[in-house]
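Reposting from the mailing list since nobody answered there.

I have sequence plus structure tokens for a pair of proteins and want to know whether others read the tokens the same way I do. The first protein:
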Amino acid sequence: MEDRICARLDALREEKQSAIHKATGRSLVVIKAAQIAEDFKATGIRLVSSGIRRSTGGSGYANGQAAGERVPLSSGVGARRLAGMLT
């Protein structure tokens, strides 16, 4: 389930970033990301994921994927969308 939710959130993030980039025509996010990476390298900070996975029954993973697909990721009823804002 975790993997599917993560994949869906990544897709939503990519859509928002693409929409904001197209709407503003600016590349500040890319420059900021490069600056952050440079600062991490300069200070010796290294971020890594743990990569720990548990082995479960064959159907458990498929059930988790299906459950992750059903999790609602919408902003909800009556939510406003502000142009250029990440929410």
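The second protein, same order (residues first, tokens after):
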Amino acid sequence: MAMRGGSPDEIRAIAGELLALLEREHRVVDGEIAQYPKPIPRCDAQFNFLYDQRSALSEPIAWLREALRGHDNEEIVRACTRVASRVPCTQAEHESAVRARLRDALASADAAR
């Protein structure tokens, strides 16, 4: 039986996919920061970009982890809405595609209410 558009199960699945994607990217950025040549001057644009990117990834990861840890569908919808309304954390097309699916599922769930 197929899930109807915007069902809690569909939203949870997409949120889990987005969380995994963001966590992978966070690990990559952490690795790049760890391997960055030392000493690092404060004005190093590439390092500052990596640092900002890691910070941008941390907040939506925390929101999604917290929401997915529980079973409250409304909390999951709230966290997903917060994440979906923000600009993508990476430049990866896959993140944009997953975010678009999440926004569509949230809109379908809202329309079904």
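Reply #1 (J.P.):
I read it the same way you do. Residues 8-34 form the longest helix (27 residues).
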